[in-house]
Amino acid sequence: MFTPDDTIVAVATPRGRGGLGVVRLSGPRAATIAEGLLDRSEPLRPRHATLAKILDHGAAVPIAVDQVVATAFPHPGSYTGDDVVEISAHGSPVLLDRIVALALAAGARLAEPGEFTFRAYLNGRLDLVQAEAVADLIEAVTPLQARVAFDQLEGTITTQIKELESQLFDLIARLEASLDFPEEGYHFVEAGEVGHAVAAIRRQVESFLEGAACGRLIREGCQVVILGKPNVGKSSLFNRLLGVERAIVTSMPGTTRDLVTDVTDLDGLAVTLVDSAGIRAGSEDAVEVEGVSRARQALGVAAAAIVVVDRSRPLEQEDWAVLEETAPRRRLVAVNKVDEPASWAGESLLLDGEAAVVEVSARTGAGLDRLRSALRDVLTGGESLRDTPAVANRRHIGLLERVGEALGEAGDAVASGATEEFVLADLQRACAALDELSGKRTPDDVLRHIFERFCIGK
Question: Among 74, 154, 229, 439, which has the minimal tally of Cβ within 10 Å of its Cβ?
């Protein structure tokens, strides 16, 4: 997948202009290449910021490219575990690309996406769970997402996995030892003790998975579509929830023709709100018909819907049609325009199921906090988001579920009086899944999928 023994280089800061930009080199020749670019003869002192100039030696007379601060991090105490040099230059893409080009000309190779973190993984600076947390931390758009990712980077999941691995290893070792003395049966461990140990480890796995659904929701975010007939205030509510005037609002029905999307922080959840065209039947406008079709497609993939009805006008068949269409899905009903005289009472809105009904005014903001709270409960099933979930990554959840299934089968084998070989086979499957989780044994295609999510300089 990657060549781990050469020297790589890339811009480590986001593209665009800024006060500073960082070029990172990693590999056996990182210091040699970096020092060859600087206007100084002395080697870089480890972990010491050195002011220097980058020189282009391609001309007859060396030309100064930029004034920089260079810092060397010798192996193994660097981010990647290799020799690393970071060059902090002025944050112009032109200058940064020039420094990278000079490093390439001196023998470095342009890094692949995620290659610096991949080297950290190969060199034991991070396990695979922590490496994934680096990408999650970079991509976080809410403080809660960042907190979950940083906890994972700090090793909260790694520590628990190691504890599970230690208990499994001890149990497997004693069972394998007993195979050397088949005439003794469970010589190193009694059958009842094996059953209790397997059940205890399985309970830990199940406890580990508690809150996993909320964890995934925090990590991945979700989509919520705002639906309703034309001119009930969907776009106004969309803007209110975002806190900016993102969608065009007019008194003319059918103003919104296409989907308008933006992300909002809903108590730590990254929620992609989708404003949609008003749903009504019988339109001969091809653009409006396509807009309604897209609204329905958005509903098909959304985690939940906000159905907006207008309390200042009598409910019509189009309102009831939208309510009926969304009935099988997770939703809440926003009764809008409560700041205007009411045309119907809330009791007349008879809904099947447990759909939350919240009275709001998109114009004044009244009821908006209740709406946000109700939407959070719809998305999380009422679970609290205050406690950081232990597991949030879909890959981790799937592998831990495999561990639990293998342990369950091991427990059944013990209960049925099966021999050590059958119990061991199930325990070793559980152990293999934990190894894949932490990255001890992970297929190359999985590694490729994980690290290709990273930016080039990470």
Answer: 154
Tokens representing residue 187 in the block: 């010589």
For residue 376, the surrounding DSSP H or E stretch is helix 368-380
DSSP state of 260: E
Cite the beta strand spans of 77-151 per DSSP E.
Answer: 84-91, 109-110
Question: φ, ψ for residue 334 (rounded to 5)?
Answer: -100, 110
Please tell me the distance from the alpha carbon of residue 437 to that of residue 380, in angstroms, as a whole number.
26
Q: Cα–Cα distances in Å, from 316 out to 75, 122, 341, 410?
A: 71, 63, 17, 60
Sheet holding 63-73, edge to edge: 50-56, 63-73, 84-91, 18-26, 8-11, 109-110
Residue 377 to residue 332: CA distance in whole angstroms: 10
Q: What are phi and psi of 279, to 5 degrees?
A: -90, 120
Count of residues in the chain = 458
CA distances from 67 to 20, 54, 89, 422, 457 (A): 11, 6, 7, 67, 21
Q: How far apart are alpha carbons 108 and 44 in whole angstroms?
A: 18
Beta-sheet strand order (sheet of 222-227): 260-266, 269-275, 222-227, 304-310, 331-336, 356-359
Question: CA quadruple 225, 231, 235, 237: dihedral positive or negative?
Answer: negative
Instruction: Please name the residue that has the structure tokens 């980077």.
Output: 153
Q: Which helix (H) or strand (E) holds 424?
A: helix 420-438
**What is residue 336's three-state secondary structure?**
strand
The token pair that represents 145 in the structure block: 């997402």
**Residue 338, CB-side half-sphere exposure with 13 Å CA sphere:** 16
Confidence check: pLDDT of 118 > 70: yes
- The torsion angles phi and psi of 313, rounded to 5 degrees, stand at -130, 150
Structure tokens at 246: 């993102």
- Report the range of poorest mean pLDDT among 46-60, 73-87, 147-161, 383-397: 383-397
CA 391, CA 399: separation in Å to the nearest integer? 11
Domains of the chain: 8-126 (3.30.1360.120), 134-210+391-438 (1.20.120.430), 218-380 (3.40.50.300)
Tell me how far CA of residue 229 lies from CA of 29, 43, 255, in angstroms.
65, 71, 12
Distance CA 292, CA 280 (A): 8
Cα separation, 332 vs 354, in Å, equals 9
Residue 207: helix, strand or coil by DSSP?
helix
Q: What's the rounded Cα separation, in Å, for the pair 132 and 160?
A: 16
What is the Cα–Cα distance from 374 to 243, expressed in whole angstroms?
A: 18
| Position 316 pLDDT exceeds 60 | yes
